[in-house]
Amino acid sequence: MPTQRTAVSSQLAEVADPWPAHGGEPETAILCVEELRKNALSNSRDASRAGDAAIGIRGVSKSFGDDGDDGRLPALQAIDLEIRRNEFVCLLGPSGCGKSTLLNIIGGLLKPSTGEVFVNGRRVVGPLPRDIAFVFQEDTLLPWYTIAQNMHVALEFQGVPREERPERVRAALEAVGMSEFARYYPHQLSVGMKQRIAMSRGLSLQTDIVLMDEPFAALDEQTRMVLGEDLSGLLEQTHKTIVFVTHSLAEAVFLSDRIFVFTARPARLKSIVTVDEPHPRRPDFMTSDKFNGLRNRLYGLLREEIREAVRQNV
Amino acid sequence: MRMQRLLGIFSSPKWIQAGFIAAVFVAWHVLTLSGRISSLFLPSPGAVYAALTQIVASGAVVQAIGTTLRTVLIAYVGAAVLGTTAGFAITRSQYLCRLLEPLLSGLFAIPLTLFFPLFLLFFGIGPGSKIAYGMTYAFFPIALNTISGVIHVDGKLIAAARSMGAPPHLLFRRVLLPGALPVILTGLRIGFFICFATVLGGETLSSISGLGHEVANSAQLMDSSRMFAWILVVIATSFCLVMLAGRLERLRGDLRGGESR
Ligand SMILES: Nc1ncnc2c1ncn2[C@@H]1O[C@H](COP(=O)(O)OP(=O)(O)OP(=O)(O)O)[C@@H](O)[C@H]1O
Ligand SMILES: [Mg+2]
């Protein structure tokens, strides 16, 4: 017991807001967004593509640690970018540069030190569960609930009426071919299966925007490709804006409309690479000269930054 | 062959434990037979058995166990309710955690026995003082483990729930409570045995009824056979409680089914 008690005090400094009592957004604000979304959905994909930004990031910087602290760590520096509606963008950068941090700021889970983020034209001050769904880098399924219960709880969190939940859970599990595992607990599934569930949970929330933090990182090459193709097809059918973090250059080129390349920490926007190829993308895109040219260009952009990141971490 | 199998059976933990208890009784018997120890310090098993049948027959045992268990139960339920409530309330704010957690740990480290006279002064010599004393002591491990349990719930799960819009009451029910439960239950178990020990201690120090009172009273009357008989009753009672706690915990494990630990 004494060891446990000391663990409490040492952990305290690290755990921010163990039981956040945030109240969410006012109802009226959510209604506004519903209106916006209806408008957006009534436009055709191409029309909305040319139009307004889904996510606007204006001068966002983020440092961890307290002001004036020696250990203060700048993670993001003056990021300015816009992500259009129905666009698939990848965030690419060396490990530890601040990609997850940027994703968390977009989703309202972290406050930027300076700057602002706009989602559907509205300033982000907290999580926006009706606009943004997350698929996290780590396994975030609740270990004490079965797969079906996990999906159910996600909808409950989002405020979906009880009657609608079973059908949506069933459909979401079917969409990723995991129906037969509905009654399994997360620890009974493989890493890849869990990640598929996490992805289907994110999609079942039916938000316009999905933020994905290396959702395929734990998967083998083959599964990644298949899921990547699925995702590309899905983008064509549903009108979603996807922000995707990856370390795989091939994955970035295969999936993205645009790729934002970041420098080593503190992350600054280094370059934007456009992939001009319609969705859904076929596997033969991967063997084209265009694909290889883009991948080599990305590698050229990243090389220096990866060296810098490695230097930082030794 | 046969020999080996027999050896196999008797080297199982159950047999060794039973053998140990039997050995204690035999040693006890031999020691008292030798006459080298005064029966005031160590009465013979026969004398203790006689005293035991006498206190059982008079109904004193049932009455004392009843008094003590009722006291323990009231103190424990109070401690469990107050401890978990306070624990959860404190985790609502990081500031409160930082302020109160070390304070509670510190208070728990003080031997509260020192304050027992104060409890007597406030709540009298009856069960009231023992209830307050047991409740106070058991409160600390329960509250501290509740805090620890909540704080150690995986932050990623909380972030994910927040991103999906979980309001505080659902965050509590779906994430924090189930996540903290194993640690809270450990606190509740520790709290129970502290409560039991504390109430017995209080009764031994100063009281008018209960198991602890009977032990202390017999000692004061220099009736050591009777005192040992009461000690055996206390041992049997704690043994039953330990068994009960184990049973409850296994029941919970079964209810939770296929879940990982
Ligand atoms: N809560 C935090 N407190 C302090 N420092 C943090 C925190 N979160 C992240 N950092 C630091 O900020 C930097 C950027 O972290 P981040 O997780 O955003 O990187 P990343 O680009 O997602 O890395 P990876 O590709 O390895 O996932 C890292 O150096 C990390 O140590
Ligand atoms: Mg990351």
Description:
The complex is a heterodimer of chains A (314) and B (261). Chain A is an alpha/beta fold and 314 residues long. Chain A has helices at 2-12, 27-42, 45-50, 99-106, 147-158, 165-175, 191-204, 221-237, 249-255, 289-312; strands at residues 53-64, 73-84, 88-92, 114-119, 122-123, 132-135, 209-213, 241-245, 258-262, 269-274. In chain A, strands 6-7-8-3-9-10 form a six-stranded mixed sheet, sandwiched between helices. A four-stranded antiparallel sheet of chain A has the order 2-1-4-5. In chain A, a hairpin with an 8-residue loop joins strand 1 and strand 2 (73-84). Residues 1-51 of chain A have low confidence and may be disordered. The relative contact order of chain B is 0.12. The radius of gyration of chain B is 24 Å and the shape is globular. In chain B, helix 5 (94-109) packs across helix 7 (127-151). Chain B has 261 residues and is an all-alpha fold. Adenosine-5'-triphosphate is lined by residues 64, 73, 75, 93, 95-101, 137, 265 of chain A.
Please describe the topology of this protein.
The complex is a heterodimer of chains A (314) and B (261).
Chain A: H1 2-12, H2 27-42, H3 45-50, E1 53-64, E2 73-84, E3 88-92, H4 99-106, E4 114-119, E5 122-123, E6 132-135, H5 147-158, H6 165-175, H7 191-204, E7 209-213, H8 221-237, E8 241-245, H9 249-255, E9 258-262, E10 269-274, H10 289-312
Parallel strand pairs in A: 3-8, 3-9, 6-7, 7-8
Antiparallel strand pairs in A: 1-2, 1-4, 4-5, 9-10
Helix pairs in contact in A: 5-6, 6-7, 9-10
Chain B: H1 2-10, H2 13-34, H3 45-57, H4 60-91, H5 94-109, H6 116-123, H7 127-151, H8 155-163, H9 168-205, H10 211-220, H11 224-256
Helix pairs in contact in B: 3-11, 4-7, 4-9, 5-7, 6-7, 7-9, 9-10, 10-11
Bound molecules: adenosine-5'-triphosphate and magnesium ion.
Kindly list the characteristics that best describe this protein:
heterodimer, A: 314 residues, alpha/beta, four-stranded antiparallel β-sheet, 40% helix, disordered N terminus, B: 261 residues, mainly alpha, MetI-like fold, 11 helices, binds adenosine-5'-triphosphate, binds magnesium ion
